[in-house]
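Budget justification aside, the reviewers requested a transparent look at the raw inputs and outputs of the sequence design task funded under Objective 1. We therefore reproduce one unedited record. The lines immediately below are the structure tokens for a 398-residue chain.
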């Protein structure tokens, strides 16, 4: 009876489309279910094979359509996949880790697609979605599967983006903080993170920034995800530098390095560079040595990858040197220039050495700088060209 209800409820959530061969998809899902039930393999191996074939089937159908042009057919594919999974779930052993993983990924993909729809689903189709997810979540919970929770949260609204509190946040209206806290706790970190990323992807930066800031400041939600990092990335993308510098003022550099590494591993090197430059600038301006070398090294590598131009790189080094308060920070810049640019950076290194001497012209610093300057100077093909950079040769007189 429940299966028949599922069949009925799942038939049209994604809408009608001549492109979809839904009968073929249903037939394939039924074959997978039958193969699982009749399998003579050990339970874990049979479950693993079912999950692999289900994923392969979804890929085959999903690759037929461009979601940016028409996402509704893919919505129907996900609906049928969940329906097929419900029927197969009693024969899937929980000892196979793929059983929970596949359903979780399916639920996240379904939720992401709903958030990405260019227009909200019509009311009748949204009601079909609500009915289907309520049935599916209840049925799967009976077998110990709670991975559709994120969809059940969405199904309790009147649309993917229609929650009145969410609308107030995104329009940056005056907020009722009790209602905001209830909304954030109800949605949970996963769904909120998906919303922010969608807003960023669609260039709705002010809305993404507003939501990310609330999430990062929430006592529970803020500790369950990278919302502070996401908020800073929003500021990197769309706000004046002064605002970013204010927000990073109290962030520990160890945490900053972790954020930068996260962004780099996610492939967002531009945001990683902006964030790294901001934290490095703070340390330079404050004369702080804490993590300054690590930040300088990260900044140098990222700068080279994001803007692979020697002249731009050297100019950025000069700009950072203006902020320095100690000779040690200048030494760090000289070191990365020699490492990254080598001979092309000799003139800039001499400029920085001169700045270091003028910054702190005591006997110890002069001794430390004389040999490096002399070596750099000897490596220049046309040293006289650079005498205009200083009043006297720095390694002869201070």
């Amino acid at each position: 009876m429940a299966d028949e209800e599922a069949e009925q409820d799942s038939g049209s959530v994604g809408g009608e489309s001549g492109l979809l061969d839904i009968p073929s998809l249903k037939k394939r899902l039924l074959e997978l279910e039958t193969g699982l039930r009749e399998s003579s393999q050990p339970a874990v191996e049979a479950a693993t094979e079912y999950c692999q074939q289900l994923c392969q089937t979804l890929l085959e159908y999903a690759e037929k359509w461009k979601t940016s042009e028409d996402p509704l057919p893919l919505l129907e594919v996900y609906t049928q996949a969940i329906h097929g999974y419900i029927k197969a779930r009693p024969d899937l052993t929980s000892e196979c880790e793929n059983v929970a993983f596949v359903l979780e990924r399916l639920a996240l993909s379904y939720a992401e697609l709903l958030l990405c729809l260019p227009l909200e689903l019509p009311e009748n189709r949204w009601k079909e979605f609500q009915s289907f997810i309520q049935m599916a979540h209840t049925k799967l919970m009976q077998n110990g599967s709670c991975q559709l929770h994120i969809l059940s949260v969405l199904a309790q609204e009147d649309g993917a983006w229609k929650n009145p509190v969410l609308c107030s946040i995104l329009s940056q209206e005056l907020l009722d903080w009790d209602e905001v806290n209830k909304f954030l706790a109800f949605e949970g970190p996963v769904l909120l993170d998906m919303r922010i990323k969608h807003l960023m992807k669609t260039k709705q930066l002010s809305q993404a920034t507003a939501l990310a800031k609330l999430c990062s400041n929430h006592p529970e939600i803020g500790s369950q995800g990278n919302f502070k990092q996401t908020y800073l990335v929003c500021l990197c993308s769309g706000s004046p530098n002064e605002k970013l510098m204010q927000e990073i003022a109290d962030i520990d550099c160890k945490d900053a390095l972790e954020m930068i590494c996260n962004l780099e591993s996610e492939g967002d090197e531009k945001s990683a560079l902006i964030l790294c430059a901001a934290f490095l600038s703070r340390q330079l301006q404050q004369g702080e040595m804490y993590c300054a070398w690590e930040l300088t090294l990260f900044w140098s590598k990222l700068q080279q990858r994001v803007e692979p131009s020697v002249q731009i790189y050297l100019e950025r080094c000069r700009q950072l040197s203006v902020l320095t308060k100690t000779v040690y920070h200048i030494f760090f810049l000289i070191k990365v220039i020699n490492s990254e640019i080598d001979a092309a950076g000799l003139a800039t290194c001499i400029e920085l050495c001169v700045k270091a001497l003028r910054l702190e012209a005591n006997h110890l610093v002069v001794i430390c700088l004389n040999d490096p300057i002399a070596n750099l100077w000897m490596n220049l093909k046309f040293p006289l060209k650079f005498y205009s950079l200083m009043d006297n040769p720095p390694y002869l007189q201070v």
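Confidence is low (pLDDT under 50) at residues 1-12, 14-19, 380-398. The chain has 19 helices and no strands. Computational costs for records of this kind are itemized in the attached budget.
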